[in-house]
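Before relying on records like the one below, remember that each one covers exactly one chain. Contacts with other chains, cofactors or solvent are not represented anywhere in the record.
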Amino acid sequence: QVQLVESGGGFVQAGGSLRLSCVASGRTFWNYAMGWFRQAPGKEREFVAVVYMDKGVTRNADSMKGRLTISRDNAKNTVYLQMNSLKPEDTAVYFCALRSRASVLPLTTPQMYDSWGQGTQVTVSE
């Protein structure tokens, strides 16, 4: 079993930055990729970014392209999400997710992930 714990959320004004962290613990030997999703009230969970733990290859959602960087520290089983130029529409609960097994399919939907964190709230004011 894997546990994921997010941190770094909070309140920020439009144009500001936040850095989210997600630490994985437990049975993390099989850790193929870690991703971030977000969910705003009344909306579906939306893909934000993913990093493949072996090669460090990343993929970002178009909605935040140019404004975020996902990175990982394998030694710490940690993934980071640096978000810049935040907008009010970025307000959501941000979730960290882990996929344990390799896949040739895009890891851009929640169904592709095995474990989830509790989420951290990000609120961007005007």
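The mean pLDDT is 95.
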